[in-house]
């Protein structure tokens, strides 16, 4: 939620009742009145004036100007950065040296220590720091007490430990040629060619250049200097003092930005750097037809009524970019948590601009990365393909955590379920209408006057009874807990936070006060380990009374959102643990907070992992590494078709950037969706990795059972589809948790040789299932056109119509009840088809195995399952099987992918679980007669089972259904024999 919603009557009443300092209260109510008036005119667009554009952010403006000057000067431009050849040393995979920056017209040169780290897996890290600042030989302005170094601790939060440096990397310096060459790499041979003067790096794979750093000479490290005497003709470029939104930034260290250009030769497509409401394939940002004029911005912020098709910043950021060209993938991680801007432009290739290359690459992408502070810290990945890239990126930042099963089922949320009776009623209604759901959510109104860890004594007087009631059907409650702590007497959370010095400070080292939901508030500083220990205490059942095992947590407003702060967040000169400035760590704040919450929920009952349940934490703000402990959603979207359209590209970008557990509010947060929009949104939401409906406090109630017919039935179908596919979703999450493969897979990831699919972002493959889905996102759509990326056969999920055509589109009719969904030939996936009230009740339900036979007559797929709630899977308590169909002999086999260990409690519990149905789609006509028969081999025995055969006609596939083959999931083989009697 965002503060501008404060216009609602409920909000206003609560706000006036709070015990805020008078000045802040005044400010608040002024805002309420002004914005209230706007709000009544209903949804306008985002308030651009509340957020900076590049030219209002001094360092962005300066670096863009440098880029323009360098470009205009062309070869006459002299880059001031030179690597001193004599300084180069190489030991244990680390190449060190000194870059000298020559300052125009001055004697002095600036010393910039450089480190290249070459890792065993084949990626490289480049770090450039500033010697004077490392040594603390600078003076801070205005007696500031902040740290003198450039911020270098992002790795502490974003990266996982344990990376091994390469012992094979070899370097040679060729002084005459002015270069140092480093050969490195794992499976594939890589090379870095480092030019000394001006400093530039080319990265080669198999002898071809795939990436160039500082080719355009935009490298810039604004070195420390004392503020010069002001002269008459000085142009203010925001180096020393900057004001925005009524706040002045004191900049104790002066200007200190870092910037670099990164070119991807021959790569016409780049993706990633979420979060932006934009197309999956990133657009150019320096003007021109259909392009943006502003760079993509990453400065986590609570953007009220954000607009779609925009490079504006949103709630979270992951500075990871993937570049794609036919048959090749590379990527970069720009590890910097300060405000960051990225310009993207494309260049028609001049065949002479890079050494060896294939002339078929017509375009290159040039990017320019600009951050306000910190060291220059960059990881370079040379692919060669998407799976290698995601595996490597995950090796650095960690893979997405394996979530509890309930959290990938359906969530029902609203700001707010107003009382425990309301919760009970909604819970009952879902059952009455036979719509499955797993989780009901409580937004801020459940608290006693916005004091987290308390309950409103009138409306939620018996929270334990409520959550116990939910537990009867294995349902959960998710309650919101935000990082702003109400400043008020008689609230131990507040007094402990401040008296123990665990809160964020302002520039003069006093505890920082700001305005948020509770009124005057302080913010927890989870960069401080003592804050994390204390935070963990708050979640113990004897502290957060009313919570129990089935209660999980939602962390909102953690950008952090501060209603009266510049750009709705804290001043940049606020001070955090260890005297780092807010400027340095801004984009990490949300991660440190949700990570602390995750640890708190995990450990609330026990320190012993054997006794812990996997927590579920939803966060709005995130950074690289957030995937290890949280799911995200796309924040406060609107009940508009344009926002439904924006969601899939955003969720796919999350998957590319390693954080696939992502969703958008179903129905749209602001406003009231038409019934058609709501219905289509459920159909789309059933394919969001995180599937939650949510609504603003002023929106009309819209629980799915209220929609009336035919909408209720259609929505029920969509939700049930999600539940029936849960084993397939869980298997996809499992894969993401060990090798980083996205869950919603764009065309370019699956078919990297087919450029026609590179900019498609409204359809996707779901995990390894071969399901190709394109939910309807346009009003009144009577059909959609699905792009078939390859020449494999595809079948309609519902009626088994056959579709074929390489790189062509097929038209699918889309009456309201229809979700356009095809099954690619060659895949097997597993469903559970019995409708239940919650996923927990499906735990031992029988399976349906769906085989989609490919052109080659084969198909395969995997099933991963475990208890879905504990960490026992880490000790081998899971099943992981593959299913393999072969038309030669018409056999379907089930094989172990990991040995099922003897003491495996989960396998024991699953012992009796059967396959109740096998559906084989696209069985070659004639292979089975009208009454085929199936021979089953299992546990050393053999028996027959009945089949029904639907002979393919009118463009439909032949479908063989084996009903109740009386086999356990561990069956060895089904042999479908021909029989014409
Ligand atoms: C820095 O200190 C000077 C002199 O004390 C004062 O005039 C100025 O306002 C201060 N600047 C900031 C940004 O705090
Ligand atoms: C991707 O590249 C790796 C080499 O790092 C190779 O082992 C793997 O087979 C490739 N995967 C695909 C799908 O081409
Ligand atoms: C994040 O949480 C994990 C899991 O509880 C914990 O082990 C880790 O230390 C935390 N990481 C950071 C950077 O706080």
Automatic annotation (TrEMBL):
It is found in: Endoplasmic reticulum. It comes from the Eukaryota. Gene3D superfamilies: Glycosidases, glycosyl hydrolase (family 31), Golgi alpha-mannosidase II. Residues 859-892 form the DUF5110 domain. Residues 401-732 form the Glycoside hydrolase family 31 TIM barrel domain. InterPro entries: DUF5110, Gal_mutarotase_sf_dom, GH, Glyco_hydro_31_C, Glyco_hydro_31_N_dom, Glyco_hydro_31_TIM, Glyco_hydro_b. The keyword Hydrolase applies. Pfam families: DUF5110 (PF17137), Gal_mutarotas_2 (PF13802), Glyco_hydro_31_2nd (PF01055), Glyco_hydro_31_3rd (PF21365). Residues 114-343 form the Glycoside hydrolase family 31 N-terminal domain. Its main location: endoplasmic reticulum. Pathway: Glycan metabolism; N-glycan metabolism. One of its GO terms (biological process) is carbohydrate metabolic process. One of its GO terms (cellular component) is glucosidase II complex. GO terms for molecular function: alpha-1,4-glucosidase activity; carbohydrate binding. The keyword Endoplasmic reticulum applies. Residues 740-828 form the Glycosyl hydrolase family 31 C-terminal domain. Residues 228-252 are annotated as: Disordered. SUPFAM superfamilies: (Trans)glycosidases, Galactose mutarotase-like, Glycosyl hydrolase domain. This is alpha-glucosidase. It comes from Terfezia boudieri ATCC MYA-4762.
């Amino acid at each position: 939620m965002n503060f501008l919603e404060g216009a609602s009557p409920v909000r206003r009443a609560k706000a006036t009742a709070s015990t805020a300092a008078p000045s802040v209260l005044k400010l608040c109510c002024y805002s309420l009145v002004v914005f209230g008036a706007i709000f009544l005119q209903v949804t306008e667009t985002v308030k651009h004036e509340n957020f900076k554009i590049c030219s209002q952010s001094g360092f962005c403006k300066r670096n863009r100007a440098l880029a323009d000057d360098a470009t205009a000067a062309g070869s006459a431009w002299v880059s001031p950065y030179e690597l001193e050849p004599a300084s180069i040393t190489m030991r244990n995979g680390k190449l060190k040296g000194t870059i000298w920056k020559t300052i125009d017209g001055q004697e002095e040169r600036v010393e910039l220590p450089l480190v290249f780290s070459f890792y065993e897996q084949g990626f490289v890290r480049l770090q450039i720091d500033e010697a004077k600042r490392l040594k603390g030989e600078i003076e801070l302005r205005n007696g500031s007490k902040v740290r003198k170094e450039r911020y270098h601790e992002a790795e502490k939060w974003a990266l996982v430990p344990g990376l091994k440096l390469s012992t094979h990397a070899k370097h040679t310096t060729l002084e005459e040629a002015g270069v140092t060459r480093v050969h490195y790499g794992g499976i594939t041979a890589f090379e870095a060619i480092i030019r000394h003067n001006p400093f530039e790096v080319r990265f080669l794979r198999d002898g071809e250049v795939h990436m160039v750093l500082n080719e355009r000479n935009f490298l810039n490290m604004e070195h420390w200097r004392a503020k010069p005497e002001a002269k008459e003709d000085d142009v203010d470029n925001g180096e020393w003092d900057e004001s925005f939104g009524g706040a002045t930034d004191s900049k104790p260290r002066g200007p200190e930005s870092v910037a670099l250009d990164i070119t991807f030769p021959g790569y016409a497509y780049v993706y990633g750097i979420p979060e932006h409401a934009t197309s999956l394939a990133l657009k150019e940002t320096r003007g021109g037809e259909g392009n943006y004029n502003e760079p993509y911005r990453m400065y986590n912020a609570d953007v009220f009524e954000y607009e779609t098709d925009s490079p504006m910043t949103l709630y979270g950021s992951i500075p990871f970019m993937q570049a794609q060209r036919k048959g090749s993938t590379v990527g970069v991680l720009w590890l910097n948590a300060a405000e960051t801007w990225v310009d993207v432009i494309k260049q028609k290739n001049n065949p002479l601009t890079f050494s060896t290359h294939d002339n078929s690459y017509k375009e290159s992408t040039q990017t320019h990365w600009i951050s306000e502070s910190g060291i220059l810290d960059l990881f370079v990945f040379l692919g060669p393909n998407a799976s290698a890239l995601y595996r490597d990126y995950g090796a650095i930042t960690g893979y997405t955590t394996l979530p509890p099963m309930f959290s990938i089922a359906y969530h029902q949320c609203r700001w707010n379920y107003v009382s425990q009776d309301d919760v009970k009623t909604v819970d009952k209604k879902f059952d009455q209408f036979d719509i499955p759901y797993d989780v009901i959510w409580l937004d801020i109104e459940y608290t006693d006057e916005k004091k987290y860890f308390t309950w409103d004594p009138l409306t939620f007087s018996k929270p334990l009874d409520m959550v116990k009631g939910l537990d009867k059907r294995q349902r959960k409650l998710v309650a919101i807990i935000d990082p702003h702590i109400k400043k008020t007497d008689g609230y131990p959370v507040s007094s402990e936070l401040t008296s123990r010095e665990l809160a964020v400070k302002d520039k003069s080292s006093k505890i920082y006060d700001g305005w948020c939901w509770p009124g005057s508030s302080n913010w927890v500083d989870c960069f401080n380990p003592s804050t994390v220990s204390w935070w963990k205490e708050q979640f113990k059942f004897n502290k957060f009374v009313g919570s129990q095992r089935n209660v999980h947590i939602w962390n909102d407003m953690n950008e952090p959102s501060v209603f009266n702060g510049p750009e709705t967040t804290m001043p940049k000169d606020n001070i955090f643990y260890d005297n780092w400035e807010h400027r340095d760590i801004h984009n990490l704040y949300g991660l440190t907070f949700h990570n602390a919450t995750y640890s708190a929920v995990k450990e609330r009952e026990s320190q012993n992992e054997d006794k812990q349940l996997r927590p579920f934490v939803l966060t709005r703000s995130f950074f690289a590494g957030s995937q290890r402990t949280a799911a995200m959603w796309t924040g406060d979207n609107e009940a508009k078709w344009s926002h439904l359209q924006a969601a899939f590209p955003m969720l796919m970008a999350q998957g590319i950037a390693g954080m696939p557990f992502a969703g958008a509010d179903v129905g749209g947060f602001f406003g009231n969706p038409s019934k058609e929009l709501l219905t289509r949104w459920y159909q789309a939401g059933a394919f969001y990795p995180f599937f939650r409906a949510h609504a603003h406090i002023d929106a009309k109630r819209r629980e799915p059972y209220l929609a009336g017919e035919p909408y209720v039935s259609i929505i029920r179908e969509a939700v049930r589809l999600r539940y029936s596919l849960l084993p397939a979703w869980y298997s996809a999450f499992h894969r993401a948790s060990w090798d980083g493969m996205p869950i919603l897979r764009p065309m370019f990831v699956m078919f990297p040789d087919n450029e026609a699919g590179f900019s498609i972002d409204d359809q996707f493959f779901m995990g390894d299932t071969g399901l190709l889905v394109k939910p309807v996102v346009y009003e009144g759509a009577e059909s959609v056109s699905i792009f078939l990326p390859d020449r494999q056969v595809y079948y309609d999920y519902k009626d088994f119509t056959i579709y074929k055509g390489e790189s062509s589109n097929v038209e699918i009719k889309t009456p309201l009840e229809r979700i356009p969904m095809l099954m690619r030939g060659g895949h097997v996936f597993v469903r559970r088809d019995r409708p239940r009230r919650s996923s927990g009740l499906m735990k031992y339900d029988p399976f349906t195995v769906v085989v989609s036979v490919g052109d080659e007559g084969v198909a395969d797929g995997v099933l991963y399952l475990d208890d879905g709630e504990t960490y026992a899977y880490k000790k081998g308590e899971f099943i992981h099987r593959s299913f393999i169909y072969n038309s030669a002999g018409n056999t379907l086999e089930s094989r172990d992918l990991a040995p099922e260990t003897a003491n495996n409690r989960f396998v024991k519990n699953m012992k009796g679980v059967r396959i109740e149905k096998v559906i084989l789609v696209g069985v070659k006509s004639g292979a089975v007669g009208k009454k085929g028969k199936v021979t089953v081999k299992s546990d050393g025995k053999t028996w027959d089972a009945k089949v029904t055969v639907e002979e393919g006609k009118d463009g439909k596939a032949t479908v063989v259904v084996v009903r109740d083959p009386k086999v356990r999931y561990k069956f060895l083989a089904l042999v479908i024999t021909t029989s014409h009697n």
